[in-house]
Amino acid sequence: MDCGVWVAQWMIMDHLWEDYSVQHVSTATCMRLAVDLVMKSHNEMAGDIVHKAVAHWQVEAK
After folding, report:
1. Burial status of residue 54 (CB atoms within 10 A of its CB: 0-12, 13-18, 19 or more)
2. Helix 27-39 × helix 46-61 angle, to 10°
3. pLDDT tens figures, 18-42
4. Residue 40 in contact with residue 47, Cβ under 8 Å?
């Protein structure tokens, strides 16, 4: 079920791994991948997403 996350992680970090038997996908890995996909320079909507997230956090904090 997590093979897509593993492949995406491998694509991002393949230059760091010498052993390709890594198969455990943690919640932190999923979150890091999501943040990377949203916040990298290729995403033209990143600024808007950050603005909306901050506005949401401010409402939730009240």
Report:
1. exposed
2. 120
3. 665 656 777 787 788 888 888 888 8
4. no
Q: What is the 3-state secondary structure (H, E, C) of 37-54?
A: HHHCCCCCCHHHHHHHHH
Among residues 51, 54, 50, 27, which one has the least CA distance to residue 40?
50
Read off the DSSP letter of residue 20.
T
Q: Which of 50, 29, 52 is nearest to 39 (CA)?
A: 50
**For residue 48, what pLDDT is reported?**
92
Mean pLDDT of the residues in the chain: 79
